[in-house]
Amino acid sequence: MKSQFGEAWERLFAPPIAHRGLWSPEGYPENSLGAFQAACSAGYGIELDVQLSADGEAVVFHDATLRRMTGVEGRVSDHTAADLCSMKLAGTDETIPLLADALTLVGHRALVQIEIKTPFGEVGPLERRVHDILIDHNGPTAVIGFNPYSHAWFADHHPKVLRGLNSYSYVGGDARHLAPELRKNFSQLKHVAIAKPHFLALGTDMLPSQRADVLRQDGLPVIAWTVGSPEQWEALKPHCDNLIFEGFAA
Fold first, then answer.
1. Distances, alpha carbon 44 to alpha carbons 17, 18, 51, 215, 220, in Å
2. What is the CATH number of domain 2-168?
3. DSSP state, residue 12
4. What is residue 119's predicted lDDT score, i.e. its pLDDT?
């Protein structure tokens, strides 16, 4: 596997990965070109989120709705890429980036973990656009995300793309969109068989996990997210291979 993915596989284990770039409330906003530049300058890897615009472009943005980060009402998917790229982030001069522009900025300087925000039942269009962009990018990358069917799409169509399955405990309000049986299966990591990932990106709410320890021993590296302090990382480190962090200098 190491030879298949080369530099991307090596950088999976070090350095630490900045969640949505190296952002802060007082500095560059999350998922901005400034936050990605700051992560590169500090020597970190980068995690970012991508969604599909109304005209089929991959844009870097986390929430399904725009209000929290831009003050604009409505959903990302209701706007064209041109509209989205004109929107200011968190009252700064930074704007919503295209995935292609973010990768051009980063180049070879960092591993970019691209979280694909594909809703269940909508697999295909965003995955295809992301892959088309990756063809023209020579730097180390991986696709990550919670939807196991998105990973299965890459496994079937483009198996040479490094894939990391996200998961969390699937309890509480965040899991309401899933049927109870799916929540049970996902909390026990049974969706790994569907996704066929090369590594796991597991929420701190489900670590340490006996099931994750077994999968790790069987060859699936485990990345912890989102780690918020050095003390939290020290407690999780024996069960993980790297961390996605925010709020401190990892």
1. 6, 6, 23, 26, 22
2. 3.20.20.190
3. T
4. 85
